[in-house]
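Milestone 3.1: sequence recovery, worked example.
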């Protein structure tokens, strides 16, 4: 995904930056999930917090998809505006999700994981 996005950017499509950003996010999220899987089963409050984080991620994806499909009807096909429409939900809601995750009680982190 990252390579394809880079190839499209070289072709002159600035909106392809979205593909690169989402490719990087996919790798980061996948790596995080792999670390958690290697540590064994998740239980209790941590399991609930992890599930809520994934649900919030799905919500961000849904809002992004809705915005991306409907935005051209409102803002036209201006590449700069479309780039903002594609990335704004991710930037806004990911920062809110990060703040929420910092407020999760201390007792939910597992050995070897940063809280």
């Amino acid at each position: 995904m990252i390579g394809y996005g880079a190839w499209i950017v070289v072709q002159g499509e600035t909106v392809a930056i979205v593909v690169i950003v989402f490719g990087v996010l996919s790798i980061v999220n996948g790596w995080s999930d792999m670390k958690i899987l290697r540590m064994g089963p998740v239980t209790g409050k941590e399991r609930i917090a992890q599930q809520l984080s994934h649900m919030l991620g799905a919500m961000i994806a849904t809002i992004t998809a809705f915005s991306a499909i409907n935005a051209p009807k409102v803002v036209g096909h201006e590449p700069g505006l479309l780039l903002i429409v594609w990335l704004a939900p991710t930037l806004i809601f990911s920062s809110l999700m990060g703040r929420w995750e910092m407020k999760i009680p201390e007792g939910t982190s597992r050995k070897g994981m940063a809280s």
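The chain has a mean pLDDT of 82. The chain has one domain: 2-108.
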